[in-house]
Amino acid sequence: MNASDLTDKIQQLAALIGPNVYLQALIIAFAFVIVGKIADWIVSGIVGRIAKRSTNQLDDECIALLHRPVFLSFVLLGLGLATIRMGLREAPTFVTIGILKTIAISVWYRTLASLMALLAKAFSKSQGGKLAQTGMLSLVHNVLKIVLVALAVYFMFLAWNIDVTAWLASAGIVGLALSFAAKDTLSNLFAGVSIIVDAPYKTGDFIVLDSGQRGVVTEIGLRSTRILTRDDIEITVPNGIIGNGMITNEAGGPSTQHRIRIGVGVAYGSDIDHVIAVLEKVAADHKEMLKNPEPRVRFRTFGDSSLDFELLGWIARPIDRGRVKHELNCAVYKAFSSSDIEIPFPQRDLHVRTMPATN
Fold first, then answer.
1. Most buried residue, 33, 140, 192, 255, by most Cβ within 10 Å?
2. What is the pLDDT of residues 103-142, one digit of tens each?
3. Where are the beta strands (DSSP E) in 168-306?
4. What is the pTM of this model?
C-alpha cells in the first residue's frame, strides 16, 4: 500500500465520524498520537526490556535514541493527514506539509548522527583503540557524516518539490574542476585510505623506504606519513609516494624481533671449529642477543683471501640494530685478537716477467 492509498483509506474512515472535516482532522491527529504512544511503548518497553538482558550497553543506548523519533514520526504523519483532510487551498497545504516533512527529516538526521557517533565510540572501545589509532574509524565516521548531510539536503529538496537535477549537474561540474586542480592532494588522500585499509605498517613500526630512508612511524595521516629517523629528525612523506613504492617493515611479521648478520673473514689455515666456538661465545655473552631463536654461525664461502663466516642472531627491536652490530663487531675483533685468530687483509701476488733495461 502506497501513501495515496493510505490517505484514501484514512479519509474514508474519517468520513464515518461525521460531516465536519475539522473534527475529522482532529480525530485523525489524536489517533496517530495514540498510535505513536503504542509504537513508543513497544520500542522502549518490550524491546527495551529484551535488550537489558544483554551485558552490552550499546543496544540499550540505541533504543534510547529511537524513543523520541519513533513517537514524533507518527505525530507528524497524523498532522500531515489531518492537514490533507481539512481540504485547505493548495498553497497553505503545501507549506504545512513541507514544514512537517522538514521537521521529520531534521529529527531523523539528528537521530542517525547520534547513532553513528555511538557506534563509532563502541567500535573504538571494542578494538582496544587500534582502529582509532590507524585513523580508519575517524575516516569512515567523517565519510558517513558527509553522506548523511547530503541525503538530508536531498530529502529537504524533495520535501519542497525543488528539482535537484540542475543542482546535481552543477555539483558534478564543480567536482570535476576541483579534481583536476587538486589531483596531487587527491592522490595522496586515496593513497592514505589505501594505507589505512591495507595496513602495511602501523604507528610505532620501524620501516625502510625504497629511497633508503628508515625510521619509526610516528603518525599516519590521510595525506602523509611522518617518520622519525635515527638522527631524531622527523620527515613527512606524502602517501602518494609511499603508495607507489616498496616499503620494508622491519617490525612486521608474526613478531617484532629482528635478525642481524655479522660477517667476518679469517685467514686460511685457521681452526674453523675454534672460530665457530669463539663467535658463538661472543653472541652468547651479549645481553641483547635473544636465546630463542638461538644465535648460530655459518661458514659461508671460500674467499679470495679469507674463509668467510657469518654470525646470525636475533634482537628484540629493529631500532637497536645499528648499536648492537657495532657492539658485536667490537666484541668479535677483541675475541679474535685474544684467541690468536687472524683477520686477513686482501693480498695480491705480482709476477714480473721482464725488467726494463737500465742505462
1. 192
2. 999 999 999 999 998 888 877 776 555 555 555 666 677 7
3. 206-209, 214-220, 224-229, 234-238, 247-249, 258-266, 296-302
4. 0.58
